[in-house]
């Protein structure tokens, strides 16, 4: 009996022990831990970037938990950012290694921390769309398991380090839109696993096209503005069997694309290279217009990167680009439509279609000044419903390499009418017996409206976009130009200009001294970058009345909106339409003057800066007014036109709210206008910031203005729209996207309590700089 009881007791203990061991083992399996070295490294990286782990993946206090450790790919969670994915199968499912890290579009500033090299199991690193700066650390070469590296749209400088050559498993390398210098490293030509490579805007270095010869696994290759040189025929593109997207624009390439290009190629862009002209046909027909001008036909059937020159070598045409999913696409179309606003309707019976770029060349011209007349018309709509609902047909016009019109829209210019001829006239100078007219679709992706029915399938949407791509820019476009030699003498031109109404008055110093009462302080209107601005009184002259936007005028909503739109139009001219690229650097309410009709005038260009159109930004000393400074400019001195966009966003809010951007007399949550606006926007109460003295206003229009203002004040310059698009959004030509990303500097104010203390160095508006 005792033996039996002992056996039972022993069995119970065995069962308890086995059960306890299994429970413990199960618990261990259910809660694997992140590698401690990697955990410390990631926490340090996030802390230095001012970010923190999300509770959606840092559920249990361990980094590799929640969504970070499940079986779904991270594409399943596009809105979680920052985000990681982990592999928890190590050490019998007890240890997790971080394999993916995403920190993109989060306004992260600074450099890549050296701790990143400790995440040695990383396979995917996505850091795009941030203003990260400095050189790429050579320690990136230690991440030898990387398959995808995304660093596009940052402010990185210097060369691509040689240590990146250690990343032999790399399949995706995205490094465009930075400030890299030097040649493209030779080691990239040995990374035969690469399937996608995007590099753009390399400064101060040249690289041979032969570099890509062995990268035959590529499906996407973009080497834009990288000073690539060589003959296209030197690379056997027939070996690139998977290549579907090829962009080699803005380089120094020559030759002609071989006929053996891969059949998988869906899009190609070779614009702005040094392709040689040659005659492909001796046939030519001509017609005489009503004004006795002789018009020669443009009958050539051009391919993806080909050209045509007339037998008489008077002019030529070249087309660049490849259609999406359109193997039978035609590049000459015909129309029997009559044009009511032109005598020579016959000229528009045919039109040239081009998917990306179209150039016309005038050859053998006498050097001198010319008037170039361009005549445009849309003559066909292959699918009017898809055409009208999915695409806008816009393109840029360059003459002699200079941008003359950006986002030119034929139908819009024609007043919304189809089958109407639009004329454009430009003055140009021919200095080398050669004239180039370039019609260029600047954006690769067609502009798609939001009106696609939700019931349509994904396939239907893709098909709609594809059709838009086929006919988007120059579909049904016929451009006829005539060259009218300008023979006026320069002296006559000056004389004619002198007698124009509105010529500027010129005063000597004595007159200015008298008009300002010896530059009396009583006549000072304000302080500008070049010194004080004085009110002046002239005998027998018209007085100039200046009104300050920040004054005490009681303006209704319509007037305020017109002022906002006027400022936006002025900045668009400075940034995009002027012959030189101008950044004002000190856009603020007090630098906007109103005339007697309350038309806004941007004033005080004392801090304005010019820089080359090809530059993404310039580095300069910080100047301007606190409260209007963009974060990247205030913190790093990186200046671009997007700094003006930021300041304009603040001015928009001031105009809507009828108050300055900082007012310490208000309650704490309203002291800083931008912070208050975001707070109200997050609560779906954006209209609460509208000036209470405005009794009647268009609520939809006011909300749209506030929405655009918040877009303009995004933390990253890449997220702010260009001024031309701001104008389009304000005038409802395009839809204004909903702002979904609160700038990190707003969040940091709130976390630090900086928004409630006007004297702390962490506060931004009106006190000091804030990243």
Automatic annotation (TrEMBL):
Give the species this sequence originates from: Oryza nivara (Indian wild rice)
Write one Gene Ontology MF term: ATP binding
Keyword Transferase listed? The answer is yes
Q: Where does the UniProt annotation place the signal sequence? A: 1-26
PROSITE patterns found in the cross-reference section = PROTEIN_KINASE_DOM, PROTEIN_KINASE_ST
Q: Please identify the protein, giving its name as recorded.
A: non-specific serine/threonine protein kinase
Q: Which UniProt keywords apply?
A: ATP-binding, Glycoprotein, Kinase, Leucine-rich repeat, Membrane, Nucleotide-binding, Phosphoprotein, Receptor, Repeat, Serine/threonine-protein kinase, Signal, Transferase, Transmembrane, Transmembrane helix
Catalytic activity, reaction form: L-seryl-[protein] + ATP = O-phospho-L-seryl-[protein] + ADP + H(+); L-threonyl-[protein] + ATP = O-phospho-L-threonyl-[protein] + ADP + H(+)
Q: Which domain of life is it from?
A: Eukaryota
Could you tell me the membrane topology recorded for this protein?
Single-pass membrane protein
Which InterPro entries would you find in this protein's record? Kinase-like_dom_sf (IPR011009), LRR_dom_sf (IPR032675), LRR_Rcpt-Like_S/T_Kinase (IPR051824), Malectin_dom (IPR021720), Prot_kinase_dom (IPR000719), Ser/Thr_kinase_AS (IPR008271)
Q: What is its main location?
A: membrane
């Amino acid at each position: 009996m005792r033996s039996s009881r002992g056996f039972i007791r022993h069995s119970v203990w065995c069962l308890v022990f086995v059960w306890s061991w299994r429970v413990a083992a199960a618990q261990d399996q259910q809660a694997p831990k992140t590698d401690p070295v990697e955990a410390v490294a990631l926490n340090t990286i996030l802390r230095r970037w001012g970010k923190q782990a999300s509770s959606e993946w840092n559920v249990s206090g361990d980094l590799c938990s929640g969504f970070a450790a499940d079986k779904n790919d991270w594409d399943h969670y596009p809105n979680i950012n920052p985000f990681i994915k982990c592999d928890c199968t190590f050490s019998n499912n007890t240890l997790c290694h971080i394999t993916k890290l995403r920190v993109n579009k989060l306004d992260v500033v600074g450099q890549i921390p050296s701790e990143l090299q400790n995440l040695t199991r990383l396979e995917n690193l996505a850091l795009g769309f941030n203003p990260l700066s400095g050189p790429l650390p050579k320690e990136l070469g230690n991440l030898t398991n990387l398959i995808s590296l995304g660093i596009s749209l940052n402010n990185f400088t210097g060369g691509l380090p040689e240590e990146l050559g250690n990343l032999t498993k790399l399949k995706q390398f995205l490094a465009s839109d930075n400030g890299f210098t030097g040649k493209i490293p030779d080691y990239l030509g040995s990374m035969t696993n690469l399937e996608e490579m995007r590099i753009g805007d390399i400064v101060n270095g040249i690289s041979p096209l032969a570099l890509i010869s062995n990268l035959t696994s590529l499906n996407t290759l973009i080497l834009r503005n990288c000073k690539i040189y060589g003959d296209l025929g030197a690379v056997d593109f027939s070996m690139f069997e998977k290549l579907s997207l090829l962009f080699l624009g803005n380089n120094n390439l020559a030759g002609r694309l071989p006929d053996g290009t891969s059949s998988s190629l869906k899009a190609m862009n070779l614009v702005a290279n040094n392709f040689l002209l040659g005659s492909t046909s001796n046939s030519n027909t001509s017609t005489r217009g009503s004004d006795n001008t002789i018009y020669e036909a443009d009958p050539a059937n051009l391919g993806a990167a080909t050209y045509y020159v007339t037998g008489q070598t008077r002019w030529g045409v070249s087309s660049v680009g490849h259609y999406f999913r359109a193997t039978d696409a035609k590049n000459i179309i015909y129309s029997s439509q009559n044009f009511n606003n032109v005598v020579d309707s016959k000229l528009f019976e045919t039109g040239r279609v081009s998917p990306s770029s179209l150039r016309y060349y005038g050859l053998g011209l006498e050097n001198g000044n010319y008037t170039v007349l361009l005549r445009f018309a849309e003559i066909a709509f292959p699918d009017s419903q898809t055409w009208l609902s999915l695409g806008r047909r816009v393109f840029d016009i360059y003459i002699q390499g200079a941008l003359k019109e950006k986002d030119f829209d034929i139908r819009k210019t024609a007043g919304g009418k189809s089958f109407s001829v639009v004329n454009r006239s430009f003055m140009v100078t021919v200095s080398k017996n050669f004239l180039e007219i370039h019609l260029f679709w600047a954006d690769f992706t067609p502009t798609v409206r939001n009106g696609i029915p939700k019931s349509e399938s994904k396939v239907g949407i893709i098909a709609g976009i594809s059709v838009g791509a086929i006919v988007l820019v120059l579909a049904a476009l016929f451009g006829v130009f005539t060259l009218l030699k300008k023979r006026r003498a320069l002296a006559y031109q000056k004389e004619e200009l002198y007698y124009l109404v509105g010529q500027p008055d010129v005063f000597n110093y004595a007159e200015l001294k008298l008009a300002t009462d010896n530059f009396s302080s009583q006549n000072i209107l304000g302080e500008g970058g070049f010194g004080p601005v004085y009110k002046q009184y002239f005998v027998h002259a018209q007085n100039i009345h200046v009104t300050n936007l920040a004054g005490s005028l009681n303006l209704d909503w319509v007037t305020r909106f017109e002022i906002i739109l006027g400022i936006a139009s002025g900045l668009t001219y400075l940034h995009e339409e002027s012959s030189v690229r101008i950044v004002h650097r000190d856009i603020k309410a007090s630098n906007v003057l109103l005339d007697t009709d309350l038309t806004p005038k941007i004033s005080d260009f004392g801090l304005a800066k010019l820089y080359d159109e090809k530059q993404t930004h310039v580095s300069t000393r910080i100047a301007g007014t606190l409260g209007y400074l963009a974060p990247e400019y205030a913190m790093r001195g990186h200046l671009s036109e997007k700094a003006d966009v930021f300041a304009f966003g603040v001015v928009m809010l001031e105009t809507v709210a009828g108050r300055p951007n900082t007012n310490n007399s208000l309650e704490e949550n309203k002291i800083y206008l931008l912070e208050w606006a975001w707070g109200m926007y997050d609560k779906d109460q954006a209209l609460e910031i509208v000036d209470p003295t405005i009794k009647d206003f268009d609520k939809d229009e006011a909300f749209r203005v506030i929405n655009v203002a918040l877009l303009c004040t995004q933390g990253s310059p890449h997220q702010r729209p260009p001024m031309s698009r701001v104008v389009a959004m304000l005038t409802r030509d395009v839809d204004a996207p909903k702002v979904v990303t609160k700038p990190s500097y707003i969040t940091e104010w709130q976390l630090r309590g900086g928004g409630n203390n006007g004297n702390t160095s962490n506060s931004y508006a009106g006190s000091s700089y804030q990243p």
